[in-house]
Amino acid sequence: MTMTPRRGALTAAAAGLLITLAAAPAAAHVTVKPGEAAAGGYQTLTFQVPSEDDEASTTALQVTLPTDAPIASVSVQPRPGWSYEVDRRTLDAPIETGHGEISEVVSAITWTADDPAAAIAPGEFDTFLVSAGPLPTGVDTLSFPAVQTYDDGQVVSWIETAAPGAPTPDHPAPVLTLVAGEEDVVAQSAATGTDAEGSDTALVVAGVGLAVAIVAAGAAGTALVRGR
Fold first, then answer.
1. Which of 54, 69, 119, 219 is deepest in the core (most CB within 10 A)?
2. Would you give the DSSP letter of residue 172?
3. ∠ at Cα 123 (158, 26), nearest 5°?
4. CA angle 16, 166, 68 (to 5 degrees)
5. What is the DSSP letter of 200?
6. How does strand 36-38 pair with strand 175-179?
């Protein structure tokens, strides 16, 4: 039987919906937003926490900060209805910052609901914010293993890391991808003998030249039509 374009479109849409629904449960895990940030800069990290259990509410969340790439400064935004505790650790080698050496950093943050009314109910989610920086340089990603606790005693550990090219694990740790910051771009420009500001100027000049060429072409076309 020949499939009409309309029927084909409906079939594709239905297939896409089935794929989306099948993938939805796997996507409902603790995540960090944004997905990427500039290395060397400061960033507000938002940890999004859904309650996946149909009968239990989330009452606590613990996030562990990277140990192999420590972050010098970390501060927590208070969350109404929740209390938090900050664990710290002493570094083997201090971090050099613009404000001097940092020898102690935050190692973990634990948020706990003050009462059942503040807990994250089934089918709902909540967010927890942290300001962090300067984000480490020389690494591509930062992993933030998280442990989620429910009011029925269930504990879910979002701590797994997928190997390159491997499928996403069942309980992946929140991961932040680091991209080159402004300082990295300047350093790369110096290393290659190019100037970032000069490149921008060249782009502007090229754009103006293109605009002039377009106007000239239009004028020539008009003159040609009038000459006929």
1. 119
2. B
3. 45
4. 125
5. H
6. parallel
Average per-residue pLDDT for the chain: 78
DSSP symbols for 206-222: HHHHHHHHHHHHHHHHH
Identify which of 69, 125, 119 has the alpha carbon closest to the alpha carbon of residue 95.
Answer: 69
* Mean pLDDT (whole number) for 164-169: 84
> Which amino acid type is present at position 89?
R
74 close to 153: Cβ distance less than 8 angstroms:
no
The dihedral over CA atoms of 131, 65, 60, 160, expressed in degrees to the nearest 10, equals: 130
Which uninterrupted H or E stretch holds 58? strand 58-64
Partners of 214 in the β-ladder: none
78 Cβ contact list (under 8 Å, min separation 6): 84
7-21, 97-111, 155-169, 174-188: least confidently modelled range: 7-21
Count Cα atoms within 13 angstroms, Cβ side, for 117.
2
As a whole number of angstroms, the distance between CA 57 and CA 151 comes to 6
- Asked whether 51 and 116 are in contact (CB, 8 A), the reply is no
Residue 20 and residue 214: Cα distance in Å, rounded?
46
Closest CA to 130 of 69, 174, 67, 68: 174
| CA 65 – CA 108 distance, rounded (Å) | 6
β pairing state of 73-76 and 125-133: antiparallel
φ, ψ for residue 119 (rounded to 5)?
-65, 160
Distance CA 70, CA 72 (A): 6
Residue 87 to residue 46: CA distance in whole angstroms: 19
